[in-house]
Amino acid sequence: MELKSKVKEFIDNQYRTPKGLIGTYIGEKMVRQHKHETLWTIELLNLQPGESVLELGCGSGYAMKLILEKNVVKEIVGLDLSLAVIRSATIRNKKAMQDKKAKLIQGNVKSLPCRDDQFEKVFSIHTIYFWDDLHATIKEIFRVLKPGGDCIITLCNGKNEEKWDGITSLIDNQLIPLMKDNGFFDVAFVEGPNSRGFHTVAVSGTKNL
Fold this sequence. Notes:
Helices cover 44% and strands 30% of the residues. By secondary structure, it is α/β, with parallel strands linked by helices. Strands 1, 2, 3, 4, 5, 6, 7 and 8 form an 8-stranded mixed sheet that branches. Strand 4, helix 7 (134-144) and strand 5 (145-159) form a beta-alpha-beta unit. Helix 2 packs across helix 5. The protein is globular. The chain starts with a helix and ends with a strand.
């Protein structure tokens, strides 16, 4: 039983911050697992010509690649804690990085190494579970968004017939109030497609002008 617990802890930590060869594998596994949520989130972003976009927890760079293939945005910046997945994202978006349309940064979401009012869009897919300071992160998202810019945070709140009360509480009692308190308006809860039985949802908001 102790071994099983240790294995689970190791895998959970790899999903939080992928490391080494196993971390690289986990990063590519998440690309396959989260394909439907990624495509849905990109549609929600409603990307416009010339926009600058930031992805928090970019993983192996799949969402970045899909956005770049649309040939609409000016640039996309991906941020992640894990060097293992940043290496994968670099390979996946090599040409765009050479053309200065993509940039990758190792960093923490609670202290973004970005300028004030830098991006029209900020988004995250399945990373909010790992944010260790939600209040600081929401403040940072607001700071780096341009006035009128949009934030979309995608996550899951259940699987099949099971509803996850902890995630529902996170959304209703923390995320949505924090966004409103920090200057976002039109804060909305959006239901998306089921993916592998998981219920995909998002919380969106726009920075006050």
